[in-house]
Structure formats: structure tokens, C-alpha cells
Amino acid sequence: MSRWLVTRPCADAQILAETLGTMGHTSIISPVIHVLQLPFRPIDWSTYDAIIFTSSNAVRLGGKFPKYA
Asked: How far, in Å, are 8, 22, 34, 57, 66 from residue 43 at the CA level?
């Protein structure tokens, strides 16, 4: 079908390339950023009513989150 340039970080790029491959596309993986987890002070989630993330990496690397029913 078509060729795609995938510039996401390595782990995400591989997943996207595989998904595109199942649709008949070929991918060139060329990450433009490297995601690095840095130490941070834990957040007291009980003080917030809602949380918005702008990146799946923030969720994956951001630590433990409370479970809601």
C-alpha cells in the first residue's frame, strides 16, 4: 500500500509499525526523541478531582496511580 515514516520513541514506534504492517503498509522507524524516566516526588492524588495526561509516556512512566471503581 504505502510507506510510513514513524518518528515515535522506539517502543511506541515498533508497536505502530506492526499495526501498520497488519494493514499492508511498510514502515521506516526513525525515532526523533528518547523518553527517559527521571526520579520525582510522588504526587498525592487524593487532592485532585481529575487528571489529564497529554502523553502515554507520562502515564507509563509516571509512577503508580490509584485505582477507581
From this structure: 27, 39, 24, 17, 11
Q: Which residue ranges make up each domain of the chain?
A: 3-61
C-alpha cell at position 54: 497529554
Instruction: Kindly report the pTM of this predicted structure.
Output: 0.61
Residues 6+ apart with CB under 8 A from 45: 51, 65, 66
d(CA 32, CA 7): 5
Give tens-digit pLDDT for 4-46.
999 998 888 999 999 999 999 999 999 998 888 888 777 777 8
